[in-house]
Design goal:
This protein has about 150 residues and is an all-alpha fold. It has helices at about 1-40, 45-60, 65-80, 85-95, 95-110, 120-130, 135-150. The chain is globular and about 65 Å long.
């Protein structure tokens, strides 16, 4: 009986911790996305819509959950002193493939309004550095986003 109780407690107490970690990663990633779309001091609906669909796809969220995450990340980004706490969380919980996906998404967001602002490129470079991604990955992701833009235009 005690063994069953211990097993049940362990299973049910660990689940919320895993969900909280996942939510923290979702929020950290969304804040990084938000920083790019805010970098040019112009937040348009096209960028927000793309960010919401990225969050839905990347984290398997409903439209309402992604909308809430988008709003929460905007609040976090406005009050954040720096990007280190967010990139640290991504570094702790993501492998190289996942970090490269984030980098590609950052570039897609930067090109969403058909204009690459120097501030957007700068913030993506900072994020890539903080995620310990090599410059070659930075360039490859940029080229991939440019090609996707040209192909979709």
């Amino acid at each position: 009986m005690i063994t069953k109780l211990k097993t049940w407690l362990k299973e049910n107490l660990e689940q919320p911790a895993q969900n909280e970690q996942s939510l923290q990663l979702d929020l950290a990633t969304a804040v990084l996305y938000c920083e790019v779309i805010r970098a040019d001091h112009s937040l348009d609906e096209q960028e927000k819509s793309l960010m919401q669909s990225m969050l839905m796809r990347q984290f398997q969220l409903s439209e309402a959950e992604a909308q809430t995450l988008l709003e929460d990340s905007g609040d976090e980004a406005r009050h954040a002193a720096d990007l280190v706490s967010f990139t640290r969380l991504v570094n702790e919980r993501c492998d190289a493939r996942e970090k490269n996906l984030i980098l590609e998404n950052l570039w897609q967001l930067a090109y969403a309004d058909d204009h690459l602002d120097p501030h957007e490129e700068h913030i993506i470079r900072r994020i890539a550095d903080l995620l310990y991604l090599p410059h070659s990955h930075f360039i490859q992701a940029k080229l991939k986003a440019q090609q996707a833009r040209e192909g979709g235009a």
